[in-house]
Amino acid sequence: IHHLHVQPTENTLSFYVTFMARYINPRSITAYLSGICHQLEPYYPNVRALRLSSVVTRTLRGAHRRHGAPFKRKVPITIQHLMDIAKALPHPRTHNNALFLTILYSGFFGLMRLGELTAANEHELRNPRKVIARSSVKSTESWYEFALPTHKSDPFFEGNRILIRANTTEPNPYPIFFDYINSRDHLFPFHSPLFLTSNGTVPKRDWFLSRLRRFLPPEFAGQSLRSGGATWLASVGTPPNLIQ
């Protein structure tokens, strides 16, 4: 539409960045350029060098300054939030309340993403290989652990073991976890997934967030578990390299 030659140059890539910045978030343009380079490289082998030229990188920087929007980060959950939510849930807890509290505490103290503990809302995005298995749970009197089959930065499904220690003071994730385990094993002794709702299905992301909304405003979401746990560890003097 601008009557430019099809062969890429520093100027055409720079013009592309300027044009797109008026319509989409500049952070997305970097990904668009990567896709363009991938498609054009068989025909124009120097396209990646053009993409990395000073003209294009400076144009990207200017687009970020002029059209960029600040990151909107969710608020970290605190220790007090955990205790308040546990206290607000009626006793004896129903199976679903025990499950909700277990995901909340395990995500916080295990520095886990909500997507690692729940299933995606969209059916086509669900992957059974990512579901945590009940058989992976191990425990002693002072900790429990389970196997995370994969995570966001684990493309080869090597997995990790998540170890969560019992606390001598409140909030203590240990009794909450085994309160849920007792209920889960009673209702579904032969089901494979570790986390199951009262109807025998893996909880979806919205299932958890809808319950979290009963106690906390929208400023808190799935990211609040991981960031809250990391913030708490930093506040008690844990070295940054161990948090990482």
What labels describe this entry?
244 residues, mainly alpha, three-stranded antiparallel beta sheet, 6% strand, DNA binding
Largest sheet: 3 strands, antiparallel
Instruction: Determine the mean pLDDT.
Output: 92
SSE string: HHHHHHHEEEHHHH
- Unreliable stretches covering 5 or more consecutive residues: none
Distance between the termini: 48 Å
GO molecular function, one term: DNA binding
Protein name: Tyr recombinase domain-containing protein
Organism: Ephemerocybe angulata
Keywords: DNA recombination
Characterise the protein shown here:
47% of the residues lie in helices and 6% in strands. With 244 residues, it is mainly alpha-helical. It has a 3-stranded antiparallel β-sheet with strand order 1-2-3, with no helix packed on it. A hairpin with a 3-residue loop joins strand 1 and strand 2. Helix 2 (26-40) runs antiparallel to helix 4 and helix 6 crosses helix 10 (223-235). The longest helix is centred in the first third of the chain and has 15 residues, at 26-40. The chain is elongated. The mean pLDDT is 92.
Outline the secondary-structure elements:
Blueprint: H1 10-20, H2 26-40, H3 47-51, H4 54-67, H5 79-88, H6 95-109, H7 114-117, E1 138-139, E2 143-148, E3 160-165, H8 173-187, H9 205-212, H10 223-235, H11 240-243
Antiparallel strand pairs: 1-2, 2-3
Helix pairs in contact: 1-4, 2-4, 6-8, 6-10
